[in-house]
Target: Apolipoprotein N-acyltransferase
Amino acid sequence: MTDASPKNTAIFTLRPLPKAAFVAGYAGLLPQIFAALLVFSGSEYRWTGLAAAYGYAAFIFSFLGGMWWGLGVTTRRDDASATAIFALAVAPSLLAFATYLPWIWGWEWPGPSLAWLGFFVLGSPLADRWLSARCQLPDGWMKLRWHLSIGLGGITLLLAGVAPTA
Model:
């Protein structure tokens, strides 16, 4: 006998991303832009800008994992792909934490950590592309993901290149 409760019969209808998703997504680049302005201002807030840029890139990269987790729980899969989706979903948080370790341990920071995060963010739409073969993604998803990843990853890499190391 199968369970016919609503929790097991949910059907999701994907619609194209609304304009608000694009507006909010692009607005999400503003903190990194502001951090870059602090860095390039040459003021005493340069290190604050670098730390903020690192933190924001790490938060957003971890947020991507949360989005992927959400896709995983709304996708009915009982094969190895289901396990892989959840493994992928936790990877950004673990990688972001790994880039934090140099700061904790007093190693060279922030340049290398910013560089790694920048590369991770730039490459993250490749994970979405992999997911698109296993999950339904709304129309516009990949366009927005590429734009935001190039924006955030690019700014983060730019800051990695000018960051003095401690």
Q: What stands out?
A: The chain has one domain: 18-162. The two ends are 64 Å apart (CA to CA).
